[in-house]
Amino acid sequence: MSADNSGGNVSVPLRNLLNSIQCIRDRAKDGESNESDGVFNLSNFWGTLNQAVKAVSLEATKLSLAFSKPPLPSQQDGEKLSESILKSVLTLSTVYYWLPKSQGVSLRRQVRDATVEVLDGVTQLLEVILSSPLQSLSQEQLTSTGGVWSACDRFAQLPQDNKAAVLVVLSSQIAVVKDAIEEIEQALSEAEDPFNDVLDDDQEEENPRGNQDTYWSEQDRRVIAPCQGLMKASTACLRKLTSAVKANGDSGSPQNVAQLDDLADISKEISPGVDDLALCLYPPMDYSGVENNVSKLAALLKKFLEIIRSSHVCGESELTWVQFLEGAVDHNLQKAKDLIQQDS
């Protein structure tokens, strides 16, 4: 039998607990921090947060063990378990709310996501216990319990300040852009004209075959080259910014924290821009679409470099590569446009 069908209605406190945690989770997804005028101690915050996470992990383990074999807990014991878990969950969410946006939006988002993941895990565990037959510890219950542990363990790997949080964002963006570049390079290296070996000798050059839906023409490949150059410039911007943040990034003042968040936010726009450009490069190529996406990505990269230039992470040595990459963006944009115009 499941907890739902047990005697003494032990499911009642569990269902109430489930509803409460779902509400806490939903509030955490959208809730604002409790801003205070006093000095915020980030080190104390992490110490308290980690203790709160450990408490949730322990309470989830107790819950799972209590429902791992007969006999089921009594309704009274179920209420005690539920109260204890709810207390630990409320403590975790309360401590999360302590973290003010002034410590960095990027940092707060990552702490929020980790907190919500724990609450999701506890929710799933409760749902499994309420629905699973109580004969022995089910694989689903084991998996759900492990999910809570895994979500709690993630806190040990969280960035400890906004500088570290921004570096996490940049790293993920570099990986996405790198994948897009590698995919188009792979496609180009494998793609061949399927009709190349059956081309009639007397076919006139000015009358190319009409079916170009599955391969790139030589003109297509010429247009793709500067597009690839722009995509690689995107990676270079992200990599160079990563180095600059590591060397010069500072989370010690509100202004610098805000600048780091601005850099993280615009960096998230680059991978969609690269993806949009990459997608329109596959045959059959629509040159107007290519030109549109090339222009959009170039404009975004120029804006990105301008934000870098005006931020505290840009010193004299960084200014050199900022200027170089601005030139690379302009060069590839103009080259792509010129090649497209030649064909129109």
Automatic annotation (TrEMBL):
Q: Where in the cell is it found?
A: Cytoplasm; Nucleus
The protein's matches in Pfam families, at most eight in alphabetical order, are given as: GCIP_C (PF20936), GCIP_N (PF13324)
Q: Keywords, A to Z?
A: Cell cycle, Cytoplasm, Nucleus
According to UniProt, the name of this protein is Cyclin D-type binding-protein 1
Gene3D superfamilies on file: I/LWEQ domain, Talin, central domain
Residue spans with biased composition (Acidic residues)? Answer: 192-205
Q: Please give the family membership noted in the entry.
A: Belongs to the CCNDBP1 family.
